[in-house]
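> call design_seq(struct)
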């Protein structure tokens, strides 16, 4: 029998603002144990926070009867994070925000979360639940063994 190098950590969060910090801390702890450099840990924390806030606000629509699941799967060379909510998901990838228009107040400053997530991790995928609920975002950050 071969030993698997994969480790899974699961956290269930209340649908309340502020609890994204629990997911951030958990993701940071796992990433540090895996040997990620501090700048990548910070990127991951920001991406996880954005994903959790989206799940709380948009997926669960601030319904405190629902919860947000966070599943971290640590592999040999990457960390996958799934943030799961009870929403229906998004029907398509959002348009790329116009940062200049947002900076000049010509567009709402909000709506940058998904763009930010994509910029901070190596892979980002939004998946709508097949049952019309239990949608998730899957984030992957890769460990570059050659850096240091």
């Amino acid at each position: 029998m071969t030993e698997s190098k994969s480790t899974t950590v699961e956290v269930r969060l209340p649908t309340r603002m502020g609890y994204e910090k629990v997911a951030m801390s958990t993701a940071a702890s796992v990433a540090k144990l895996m040997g990620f450099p501090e700048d990548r840990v910070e990127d991951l924390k920001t991406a996880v926070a954005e994903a959790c806030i989206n799940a709380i606000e948009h997926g669960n629509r601030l319904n405190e009867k629902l919860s947000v699941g966070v599943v971290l799967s640590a592999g040999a060379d990457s960390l996958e994070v799934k943030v799961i909510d009870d929403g229906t998901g998004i029907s398509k990838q959002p348009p790329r925000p116009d940062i200049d228009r947002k900076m000049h107040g010509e567009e709402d400053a909000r709506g940058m979360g998904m763009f930010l997530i994509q910029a901070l991790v190596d892979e980002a995928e939004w998946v709508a639940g097949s049952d019309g609920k239990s949608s998730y975002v899957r984030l992957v950050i890769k460990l570059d063994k050659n850096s240091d």
